[in-house]
Amino acid sequence: MYYSYMDFSFQIKAKDKKTRARLGVIKTPHGEIQTPAYTPVATTATVKALDTEDIIQSRSQVVLANTYHLLLRPGLEVIKEFGGFAPFMKWDGPTITDSGGYQVSFLRTQGKELVVGSEREAEIVKITDEGATFRSYVDGSKQLITPERSMEIQSVLNADIIMAFDQPLAFSDSHKKLTDSIRRTFLWEERSFKAWEEIQKKRKNFQALYGIVQGQLDRKVRRGFMQFILDTGFPGIAVGDQTIGVDPKITGQALDTIVDMIPDDKPVHALGLGGGPEGVFEAVIRGVDTFDNTSVTRIARSGLLYIYPEDGGTKKNKFRLDVTKKVTSNKKQAISKICQCYTCQNYSAAYLHHLLVARELSGFRLASIHNVHFMNDLMERIRQSLENNDFQVLKKEW
Ligand SMILES: [Zn+2]
Question: Are residues 312 and 280 in the same domain?
Fold first, then answer.
């Protein structure tokens, strides 16, 4: 064995009787992650509108940064000097990076030119079996990410948990494209694993590589990926394609294809898990241990704040309150009666309404603090209920 499980391990502490929800702990070189856990996304070594102290105060355990964005800006030279993106942003806890596969795949054009949004006009992606070639949206320079390069970049970024380089699938893909992406992703993940093994031998602290399950709703393909991950010996499992990010029901269906194969000694991460609290429960009851999502802070900036059932949150309103709409009652009170976050402890609904309607920068921060805290608190409630053996009671409330 070229690494020791002293450096990285996953242990289940309790299981729900009725579902596959599990209470666990992931041990990393930078501390423990109590699971199930939410991972705020620090895309470019910052969670948008928050500084690192805000992330800590919002009770976050772990952050995820994007390989693709950090590679382009500030670039590896700067990150290397700091010894990783975490010391760069002064975050002491556990960290995750994605592989860049998602970004290059969803900007891919199979060789044809495509303009993707205003800021990213220079992003033209070509994907071959070797890797993905594209132009930097920062300076227009030509970039190539291969599975080997992704492992090297992620080694410099120095997260505790890293992802295999893959080519996620989109619902709109044709059958030929899908078959092609699936074949390529197997190839890329295998190469990622080999490169990672070599790199780990030279590193001081261990990085756990997660293999990624793709395959949309194709049961056979998904199970094939799962079997491959288990046979190859990846320390963790990630699920990620468009089945995970959109509709909680579809997320459930996609996870159902592999739930019986999830082992007790490997953590499962859902990449870009969507659907708010409903999506969280759909994933947790199927054994998902950690997840990330940019929408938690993105919707905050547009004025959509999460609320508890006690505040009138329901599946129908997606447990969200639009504070940009006129505040009619309790305007002097916080948006949530029970939230313990910095925002709710200090500011009224009327003030948040004012800040977000006026698009004031402090409004983005206060709204993001609340949503990140809410998600961390929801996960803590889930963990507590698993520990107390009353997860089913909590689930009914939501
Ligand atoms: Zn709050």
Answer: no
Residues 270, 380: one domain?
A: no
Residue 26 placed within a domain: no
Q: Give the separation between CA 284 and CA 36, rounded to whole angstroms.
A: 7
Give pLDDT, residue 107: 60
326: DSSP letter: P
Q: Are the beta carbons of 84 and 59 closer than 8 angstroms?
A: no
Name the residue type at position 174.
S
Quick check: is 95 in a domain? yes
Where helices occur in 247-294 by DSSP H, the ranges are: 248-256, 276-284
Domain limits for position 197: 37-293
Q: How would residue 4 be classed by pLDDT, with cut points 50, 70 and 90?
A: low
Residue type, 342: Y
pLDDT for the residue 293: 93
252 alpha carbon – ligand 1 mean position (Å):
28
CA distance 263 to 226: 10
Active site residues: 98, 292
Determine, yes or no, domain membership for 28: no
Q: How many Å lie between the centroid of ligand 1 and the Cα of residue 52?
A: 18
| CA nearest to 179, candidates 191, 167, 190, 189 | 167
Look up the CATH number of the domain holding residue 165.
3.20.20.105
Expressed in angstroms and rounded, the spacing between residue 320 Cα and the centre of ligand 1 is 12
- Best CA proximity match to 297, nearest among 352, 364, 245, 376: 364
Best CA proximity match to 154, nearest among 254, 246, 86: 86
Candidate from 32-36, 179-183, 225-229, 384-388 with smallest mean pLDDT? 179-183
Q: How far is the CA of 238 from the centre of ligand 1 (A)?
A: 30
